[in-house]
What we know:
The structure is a single chain. This protein is 38% helix and 18% strand. The chain is an alpha/beta fold. The protein has an eight-stranded mixed beta sheet with strand order 1-2-4-3-5-6-7-8, with helices on both faces. Helix 9 links the parallel strand 7 and strand 8. The mean pLDDT is 97.
Amino acid sequence: xxxxxxxxxxxxxxxxxxxxxxxxxxxxxxxxxxxxxxxxxxxxxxxxxxxxxxxxxxxxxxxxxxxxxxxxxxxxxxxxxxxxxxxxxxxxxxxxxxxxxxxxxxxxxxxxxxxxxxxxxxxxxxxxxxxxxxxxxxxxxxxxxxxxxxxxxxxxxxxxxxxxxxxxxxxxxxxxxxxxxxxxxxxxxxxxxxxxxxxxxxxxxxxxxxxxxxxxxxxxxxxxxxxxxxxxxxxxxxxxxxxxxxxxxxxxxxxxxxxxxxxxxxxxxxxxxxxxxxx
Length: 279
């Protein structure tokens, strides 16, 4: 594994950390959440070919909290843009889940900074439509996994929304199986990864309903959309919608994968990313 070097900058009087590993063309990587620590998305395979820059998003880890609690997508994008400028004039960007939403906003607000955009299990909205689709896909997952002992526990966990860090970690552990195509098959290989999962709970965080769908046709960056067949939260519906609306976007769907293709189907995920970023 490549050496990881941590850096800090200040953006609008808020501390922004990021971490760099590897050599080659610059690939800025933004994790999901919001609130989940970035380390779950560390990808040594990409560090072998790219200068891989991991954003430690504001509101997580040792990056600063936003005093007003307004973690809007344009603000996330402005912090990502500040990091990109440290490496400019242009970088490639890979965003997972909520990080993909940040990537869309970055491509909209700061198109001059991007060589390319990888939307990894992302969605073009965080509003009511996303919630409705999540509920629908949760029902589909429960039907598909009938007899799986994880199903009752996951559904029960969804009924107990978190109120602090401890309850958020319990909630995350409870719902984790639904994020994978087949958690029972893969869980033994994820022991270290699951143990390292961490988050920051900012009680001051304000709700932020966001929808960039009307602006997708204006996205100019070359775009690759990646999605797992069984991703229940940022699934194929959203991937297809983004790929159809963004000019020239390419879509890759991974069979037998959920929300974490880099863990479930690495033999497919990493070549797809490498080919695209290498151009």
